[in-house]
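Curious: can you check?
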Amino acid sequence: MMKKVIEKIQTKVLPAMVKIVPVCAALMLIINSNSTSTVMNGQPEPPKGLKKYRKF
């Protein structure tokens, strides 16, 4: 019984998690870029390398 449950998890859940990881990494990069380069944090202008990741 337990073996079947573990096999189900391995065949269905793990591949989905592997596909989600790159999306989460990209979202964290965008969120971090937008939140750390603001006037409130002492940067009146974002660095040139960050401008391509900014969404606003």
Notes: The longest helix spans residues 2-36. The CA atoms of residues 37 and 47 lie 8 Å apart.
